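cron nightly-structures :: item 1 of 1
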Amino acid sequence: VLAECPDCAKKRQSMRRMRASGLGDAITKYTFVNFEIRETWQAMIRDRVGDFAEADEGWLYMGGQPGAGKTHLCTAASVRLMHRGKSVRYMLWTDIATRLKGLKLDDEEYQDLINPLKSCDVLYIDDIFKQRQGMQPSQADVALAFEIINARYIRRDSRTIISGEMTTDQIIDLDEALGSRIIERSRGHIIDIPRDKSKNWRMRMSEFC
């Protein structure tokens, strides 16, 4: 009688979840271990995201200063949740939102694309409402975000990870119904990083080369 090794089976399932997530090479590149810490605030946000990844419920919102490590840490949290047995879907806002808005007249394809975002265990929305400099999200953007967020808000067991350049206060100003849902479900796991170019690690990397 042949029996599958439980540990090996778990590893294979984890790898399948990772391949299906859409995160690609970021899975190995963006981890908690290789998140570079040079200042106290970086250790603080890493630890807070780590706490979220070990929790059994709740959402995570990371907003504010570009280049501060939001994508790195949100990806690390996603990978940790995959290792814990959750199915994760990655949604790059500028890509998927554009595709969804273009499918509004094709309901079948629209539902095929949006339904997995509503129903997966963990959804990671990267760079929500990302726009060209000086532009604001359109009403179509807000309506799409609300459709996805509200569907996940209703499901009490859903986990949602959101990163973006807007703080939660700015999302509330944009649309109170949307922002209040994000804040309610992310309570305890909201990280708004104030605008401060010294926290943009992409710009500062040359200082350490």
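cron nightly-structures :: done
The CA atoms of residues 43 and 166 lie 22 Å apart.
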